[in-house]
Design brief:
The protein is of the alpha/beta class. The chain has helices spanning 83-90, 113-122, 139-148, 161-174, 190-202, 220-235, 247-250, 276-293; strands at 13-31, 39-40, 43-44, 51-67, 72-76, 98-103, 106-107, 124-127, 208-212, 240-243, 255-260, 263-269. The protein has a single domain, classed as Rossmann fold (3-Layer(aba) Sandwich), CATH 3.40.50.
Length: 295
């Protein structure tokens, strides 16, 4: 299937030849080569060093992937396929062993730690399965936090407290939580907590949202609510990359890439994209009918 081209000339994400290798060494499996003499503290008794077994794990084997502004992409694959490694590189939590990753015009592969920190704060909005909200902090304060630690460009003015609060309130309203801003996470449902997390991801107006199994801790109704919110944000132009192992969630996105054994084996448009709000309405109707029929 021919891939949709959205701002293909200037992709938000552009990966070329991404490889990630890990070298794993263990002394427990050390091989003694010098006459079979016993080891002591990782070396032979005669002072010669022990030979350490080393295994090279090739988590990614030359992945090419790009996404333009306004795309909604699912990243899928079985356990051990390289999904988590790709997500860590996409999120600038790790660097590739080789290859180039350009994010919103910044070549991340050669960036220093300060640039990496700036990219994570300003260019990427993270949404995690476990929400990662501060328990003793209100929804509004949780969303304000990235603004408080906002990484600034040279000569860029610092936001004052009033502007930070105004921005946080605006994104909470955008995700439908204008009436829950002063609530603590323990006073919110799982779906509401994830909405707070999505608002926190959006507050710095990032280049894209990176969601890692965002509905893994939610029931069916809340899952459909969150997928409906993602679809609405995407309709407004937000770029979303979602890592998931659930095909039933991928059908709400626009495009699915599949990894296997560290390689990208397929990249396809979703042939029949489903509407999460429509599915939620049907689920609520069916759930209500079941409740009425219960003795």
């Amino acid at each position: 299937m021919e891939r949709e081209t959205i701002n293909a000339a200037l992709p938000v994400i552009d990966m070329r030849g991404i490889k990630r290798e890990y070298r794993m060494e263990t002394k427990q499996n050390a091989k003694i080569k010098d006459g079979g003499l016993p080891k002591k503290d990782g070396a032979l008794k005669n002072g010669a060093p022990a030979v350490i077994d080393a295994v090279v794990v090739r988590a990614l084997r030359g992945v090419d992937f790009s996404a333009g502004a306004g795309e909604f992409v699912s990243v899928m694959g079985p356990s051990g396929s390289g999904k988590s490694t790709l997500m860590n590189i996409l999120g600038c939590l790790d660097k590739p062993s080789s290859g180039a990753y350009t994010l919103d015009g910044i070549e991340t592969s050669k960036s220093n730690s300060d640039t990496f920190a700036y990219i994570r704060n300003r260019k990427i909005g993270f949404v995690f399965q476990s929400f990662n909200l501060l328990a003793r902090t209100t929804a509004l304060e949780n969303v304000e936090l990235p603004l408080f630690y906002r990484r600034r460009l040279k000569n860029e003015e610092r936001q004052n407290a009033a502007s930070r609060k105004e921005r946080a309130m605006a994104v909470l309203k955008e995700v439908g939580l204008e009436g829950r801003m002063d609530h603590f996470p323990s006073q919110l449902s799982g779906g509401q907590q994830q909405r707070v997390a999505i608002a926190r991801a959006m507050v710095n107006d990032p280049a894209f949202i990176l969601a890692d199994e965002p509905t893994g801790n939610l029931d069916t109704g809340m899952t459909l609510e969150i997928m409906g919110l993602f679809q609405e944000l995407n309709r407004q132009g937000k770029t979303i990359i979602m890592v998931t192992h659930e095909p039933e969630l991928a059908v709400y996105t626009k495009r699915i890439i599949t990894l296997r054994d560290g390689e990208l084996v397929s990249d396809e448009l979703v042939a029949k994209r489903q509407s999460a709000p429509d599915d939620l309405s049907r689920w609520k109707r069916d759930h209500a009918l079941l409740s009425e029929q219960a003795p």
